[in-house]
Amino acid sequence: MASSIVVVICSVVIFAFFQLITGEAVKGSVPLNSGVFQKVIDKYQAVLVKFDETYPYGEKQDTFKKVAQATISQSDLLVAEVQIADYGDKENFDLGEKYGVKKENYPVYRLFLKGKPESILYKGSATNADDIKKFIMKESGLWLGLPACLEEFDKLVKQFYKASGEERNAIITQAEEEAKKLTAESEKASAEVYIKTMKKIAEKGDNFVDLEIERVEKLKDGKISDKKKEQLSERLNILTSFQLRMKDEL
């Protein structure tokens, strides 16, 4: 009996060790090394690269997986990972030095944009996937779906900011017509937030969004139920989408 237990324990340890030394493939991401780095970077409109230790794990790696998964349908964006070894052959150590990556700061995210000589350093939280996605959208102009955001309505928001006066009213009417086509309750709720926000901007001006984000963030930080906090987070995502598209037009 004791020998059987020892065999089982050894098998589990060997399996765990095998996973550790072989690493883990992240869906939606590709591993890069010094030999192919620039070749791959040059092929895409935008490339988000995570510089990290070898065989990363834990909450920060789980966040990276969420970001990579969310970008799969965006063909102009590639998510990649460079694992840097500070031992043995020091694989990819040269890439870390080139881009100023220090071990104590792992993971480090940099966004490479086609035609731009310098990459952009992400300075936000490495455990918040939505913040990383917002960073990508802000700097690249590419669309990524944040929770509660609707791609077709984000396109209308972009048109809305380009328009003025009666043209904006026409886009609001178009948004109301699009909302009628939705069947999912969650999408209907999101569409309502888009429409109400457009109407408030038409009434109070473009600075309404920044003021509303500030107001909602204060509410979200207060003593509220988890359900209400989730609803406010989704509202913030939609408001942030407005904010990003407004900055695109400045």
Automatic annotation (TrEMBL):
Domain Endoplasmic reticulum resident protein 29 C-terminal residue range list: 149-242
Species whose genome carries this gene: Sinanodonta woodiana (Chinese pond mussel)
InterPro entries with a match to the protein in the record: ERp29, ERp29_C, ERp29_C_sf, ERp29_N, Thioredoxin-like_sf
Cleavable signal peptide: 1-23
Gene3D superfamilies: Endoplasmic reticulum resident protein 29, C-terminal domain (1.20.1150.12), Glutaredoxin (3.40.30.10)
Annotated PANTHER family: ENDOPLASMIC RETICULUM PROTEIN ERP29, ENDOPLASMIC RETICULUM RESIDENT PROTEIN 29
Keyword presence, Endoplasmic reticulum: yes
Domain of life: Eukaryota
Name of this chain's protein: Endoplasmic reticulum resident protein 29
Entry keyword set: Endoplasmic reticulum, Signal
Domain ERp29 N-terminal residue range list: 26-147
